[in-house]
Specification:
By secondary structure, this protein is α+β, with helices and mostly antiparallel strands. The chain is built from five helices and four strands; from the N terminus they run H-H-H-H-E-E-E-E-H. The longest helix is centred in the first third of the chain and has 20 residues.
Length: about 140
């Protein structure tokens, strides 16, 4: 009987702590970025701002042609969150990819109490463009 109670408490405690983490910027950023880089845009949109969703539509159209013309195995790209700088309702997530150690940044914003990825044309188009065809010449 004691074992059953202890197991139940362990399961409940684990559930409570894992539920609390779902709203942290790091958890949301990892979900967004993993789905973004693995080209699962529908799932990435579930944790994105409306502006980011609009950009994802454009990126999805471009990447549909890209998937067949590259040797990169997008489904195996892993995201490593390096750090999160959070200030009130905004956060900047620094991350790297398993196939490239270059540090990148993702802006996050809290809307209606939920953290969302905030891709914008101004903030991220250079990084997106580099993902598509290499560094932009300035």
């Amino acid at each position: 009987m004691k074992n059953a109670i202890l197991k139940s408490l362990l399961v409940i405690t684990t559930f409570i702590f894992s539920s609390c983490n779902k709203g942290e910027p790091q958890v949301v950023a990892e979900k967004f970025l993993t789905n973004f880089y693995q080209m699962n845009y529908a799932e990435a949109k579930t944790v994105a701002t409306d502006k980011a969703k609009d950009i994802l539509v454009i990126v999805e159209k471009i990447s549909n042609n890209l998937q067949d013309s590259t040797d990169v195995d997008y489904k195996n790209i892993k995201v490593d969150i390096v750090k999160v700088e959070e200030e009130k309702d905004k956060a900047v997530v620094t991350y790297t990819l398993s196939n490239d150690p270059t540090e990148r940044h993702l802006n996050m914003v809290k809307e209606n109490g939920e953290w969302l990825a905030n891709l914008t044309k101004e903030d991220n188009m250079q990084e997106i463009q580099e993902e598509i065809d290499g560094p932009i010449e300035e």
